[in-house]
Amino acid sequence: MNVFAVIILVTLGIDFLLNLVADFYNLRSLDRGLPPEFSEVYDEETYDKSQRYTKVRTKFGILTSAFNLAVLLIFWFAGGFNWLDQLVRGWELGAIWTGLAYIGILVVARSILSLPFSLYSTFVIEERFGFNKTTPKTFVMDLLKGLALAIVLGGPLLAGILGFFTFVEHFAWLYAWAAVTVFTLVIQFVAPRWIMPIFNKFEPLGEGDLRRKIRDYADSVNFALEGIYVIDGSRRSSKSNAFFTGFGKHKRIALYDTLVENHTDEELVAVLAHEIGHYKKKHIIKNMGISIVQTGIMFLLLSVFLNSQGLYEAFYMEQSSVYAGLIFFGMLYAPIDMIVSMVMQLLSRKYEFEADAFAAATYSKEPMIGALKTLSKDNLSNLTPHPFYVFLNYSHPPVLQRIRAIRGHKAG
Q: CAAX prenyl protease 1 N-terminal domain: which residues (predicted)?
């Protein structure tokens, strides 16, 4: 076992243990009684249900993580990576197609192994707590559509990356970085119009008071909208959400139909004010910029380690290759990725506070607070998550912290 194997094993162990400890403390933070702030929204039965939901999801998450780690270690130390490599090499497909076959088989195998967990999560856990609206047909069609998109969009991108590192002698990492950056930017424009509608129906919000109020608010903050859409989120779940997509003249607001059904017009406008706040504060651009820089650093490091024989020896490989190197480097990069993830979660929580403050300053506090309370109840959110769990896993601040911050914000 060489230094590469040790680094990867230690990282896998630390990641699993950190999340296990966070889960343990998060479960211990339950059953503290309903926070007074939510006494008018939750009854005892609903609050107890939210506690049970958190417990079930947490324990299921631990089981899933343990299974995935065990499968990876067994496959690794049984020489599975080398066995698969020798298999696909025997097909004599050429460097790029061999790489696509190798990575594709690993991705499909992992998807098949995770399928029982996905089925149980959707049709047992989510069903038990009243969230699931997904039919078996929709579930299967989502899988097939996802696979088709992975082949049509991910396949050419992966082939390009493999080609750069296989055939370009100098600065392959730079070409790969440029390709991924262009791909990411194009997807930002393409997704709202052509990709998202593959999975959900986007219907323009009909004329009425809600549309007028949204338009009036958008005009008041100088935010031009191409369209306001309602998507059929209820086809899959009773949970609610809203999001903002697009750039420039193609900005869109999307509301889940469950959100529209369960909230007042004022609460819906407040939610949209929060989403517009992200745009006005340039959070989307900042996140994209950070992601692009991070990708460039990753490809630069990849170019350094791709020819390290020790990386392949750590996985018992008889021959080195760009496609296997991508997989192994992904695991070697995990310590950096773990740290970056924590920093990005922290930054994301900061952005959420800023978007809340924007909504409170430009619209109103109470509708935003009301929306947060209703969303928490409808989604059975954990109202008292442990700080360490929040640090590792939350992209949004706990709802009580958000409400306190909104109440403390001074308009203007």
A: 28-201
